[in-house]
Amino acid sequence: MSAVVKILFTVNVLFICGYSTASECHSSKTVTPTTGNSRSIASEVKTIDSFISTDRSTEVSKGLYLKSDKAIHPSDDRLVKGPDSPRYLDAVGRLRIEKSNGKANICGGSLVAFTPKQSSRIVVTSLHCLKSRVAVWSTTTKDGKTIKRKIKDIVYTNFESDVAFLLLEDFVDFRDVPPLMLQYNGGSSLNGHMSNGVEFAAAGYSADAEKGKGGTVLTYDVTGDMAARDVGADPIGGVSDDITTFGGASGGAIILSYEVDEDYAPGILEGKQAFLFGVIKGGLTNDFASSNGVEGSNNTRFVTYEKFGLELYDSMIKYNGAVDGIGDQNDDW
To answer: Residue 82, exposed/middle/buried by CB under 10 A (0-12, 13-18, 19+)?
Structure first.
């Protein structure tokens, strides 16, 4: 399954709706970016406060609607993860974060490593998801196997970029779940591949009733436009048009998948690989909603890997271990 991803021109964006209890999100002005027009995306961005989505797995589906006219939203072309979905989606697990009142927040979190054949215990997610330290990461693989790990510790946080690294209580075997890769080598960058058009997926546990089933299944979008840039003044770095997510998708992954060059990691990697390009933060708008009240957007905002790559590299070395020919090449960053 492939789709074209474009690099677009963007300007600084201050803050957006964080997708991790919909009642906490409000906007002073509606934002309506135009598909394929980066200047429309950038120029109409307004500051929107953060929100988190609760577990709504028992609520009944009644239909997705625009807040303005209650019509079925035509732009939601997300797919639901199933047996025919790409295997790399197995690495995007569901985080259930227990709260002191007995309820739970739902977010996503991505298992990462230097190669897809390295077992891992490091998960990348959004910091605003972590309302407590009591959490469980789980994923159901294409083969139907469910894997769960308790969160042992939070090993890195960045409030400005809204990113956190979690340490699982035990390794997840790569034969069960191949982790997403972090770009660690020089040469052809992920930004370069994105501009050339490669397979991508924006995957998270959106808690809408219609497709996300209250955040119990992984949904992913493979069409739309993405913009990214590495500018220090913008701690987030990524914006999109026509990529749909709902509350609950925070911490999910923007994934790029492509054939690596022969000289990328000779003797270690070959063929098609899946890279973590970014972490879903929220939406630029909150102008449509599910029947269960969860708000969503077709303009998803994400933190690009450049904003946390060096710190993640160090954490993977410390907790997953180095890989000969890769883990000792920090000079390539």
So the answer is: exposed
Q: Which of 291, 279, 292, 312 is nearest to 16 (CA)?
A: 279
Pairing of strands 79-80, 180-181: unpaired
Q: What is the pLDDT of residue 288?
A: 76
Burial code (b: 16+ CB inside 10 Å, e: under 16) for 14-46 equals ebbbbbbbbeebebeeebebeeeebebbbebbe
- 318: three-class secondary structure by DSSP: helix
Q: What is the pLDDT of residues 183-225, one digit of tens each?
A: 755 444 555 555 555 788 999 999 988 899 999 999 999 887 7
What is the spatial distance between Cα 263 and Cα 143, in angstroms, rounded to a whole number? 32
CB-hemisphere CA count at 13 Å for 182? 33
Residue 1: helix, strand or coil by DSSP?
coil
Amino acid at site 90 = D
Kindly report the pTM of this predicted structure. Answer: 0.79
What CA dihedral angle connects 243, 10, 92 and 1, to 10 degrees? 50
Tokens 């690099």 sit at which residue? Answer: 7
SS (H, E, C) 215-282: HCCCEEECCCEEEECCCCCCCCEEEEECECEECCCCCCEEEEEEECCCCCCCCCCCCEEEEEEEEEEE
Q: Which residues of 112-123 are buried (b: 16+ CB within 10 A; e: fewer)?
A: bbbbbebbbbbb
pLDDT at 19: 52
pLDDT in tens, 87-100: 999 999 999 998 87
